[in-house]
Amino acid sequence: MLMKLLHRLAAHPWIYDRIQIAAGHDRVLEWLSKEIAPLSPNVVLDIGGGTGAVRNLFSTNCQYICLDLEMPKLLGFRSTVSSGLAVLGDATSVPISDGCIDMVICKSVTHHLTDLMLEQAFDESRRVLRTNGHLLLFDAVLNRELCAGRLLWRLDRGSYPRTEVELRQKFASKFKIIHWEKFVIYHEYVLGIGIRPQ
C-alpha cells in the first residue's frame, strides 16, 4: 500500500523531476549529449520520455516527440516545452507511421518491460526508424555487487532488471551496435547506440 502511494506521488511531474535529479540525471544528460551531438537528428521519438528532460539535448529545429504512458508527466512536459509533441502511448505499440523517425531514445525504460514487451518495443523502434536511423538505449542494469544499486532496485517500479550481458544480447538481436559503454552512478548503467539495418 505504501509503495503504491509512493509510486503515485512519483508520477507527479515536479516530484518525478526531483527524483531524477537526485538519481544523477544531470550526469546522464552529459553522457547522452556527447553521443547525440554528432548524429544531429531531425525527428526524435523519446519512448517513455516522461517530462521530456532530454529535449534540450537537441537543436530547436529538431522535431521532438515525447511518448509516455502517464498523462501527468506529459502534461508536465507540455507546460515547459511548447515546441514538442506529447503522445500518450505504449512502447510496444507506437502510434507513429513507419520509417519517419531519425532517432529513437529508450532511456530508463527496459527494466519496466517483460522480455516479450522488450522485444515488441525494439520491433516498434525498428519499424518507425528510417533506414540507418539510430536507437539510443540507456538504462540501469543489474549488478548485485553494488549495495546502492540493490537498494534502488527494491524501490524502483521496474520489475525486470537485466544484466549488461542480457540487455546487450537483446539489443544486438534487433540492431547493429555501433557504440556501447558502461558506467556507475548509484546503479550500473549502459549506454548503447544501434543502427536500424536495411
Task: Quickly list its features.
Rossmann fold, 26% strand, 7-stranded mixed beta sheet, 198 residues, alpha/beta
Describe the structure.
- By secondary structure, the protein is of the alpha/beta class.
- The chain has one domain (2-195): Vaccinia Virus protein VP39 (Rossmann fold, 3-Layer(aba) Sandwich), CATH 3.40.50.
- 37% of the residues lie in helices and 26% in strands.
- The protein contains seven helices and seven strands, in the order H-H-H-E-E-H-E-E-H-E-H-H-E-E.
- The protein has helices spanning 2-10, 13-22, 25-36, 71-80, 115-128, 147-155, 164-172, and strands at 43-47, 63-68, 85-88, 101-107, 129-141, 176-184, 188-195.
- Strands 3-2-1-4-5-7-6 form a seven-stranded mixed β-sheet, sandwiched between helices.
- Helix 4 links the parallel strand 2 and strand 3 (85-88).
- The longest helix is centred in the middle third of the chain and has 14 residues, at 115-128.
- The radius of gyration is 16 Å and the shape is globular.
- The termini are far apart.
Task: State mean pLDDT (0 to 100 scale).
Answer: 85
> What overall geometry do the principal axes of the alpha carbons give?
globular
String of helices and strands = HHHEEHEEHEHHEE
H/I helix tally: 7
CATH superfamily: Vaccinia Virus protein VP39
Gap from first CA to last CA: 48 Å
Largest sheet: 7 strands, mixed
Number of domains: 1
Query: Beta-sheet strand percentage?
Result: 25-35%
Main sheet: strand order: 3-2-1-4-5-7-6
Structural class comes to alpha/beta
The CATH topology name reads Rossmann fold
Tell me how many strands there are.
7
Helix proportion of residues, in percent?
A: 25-40%
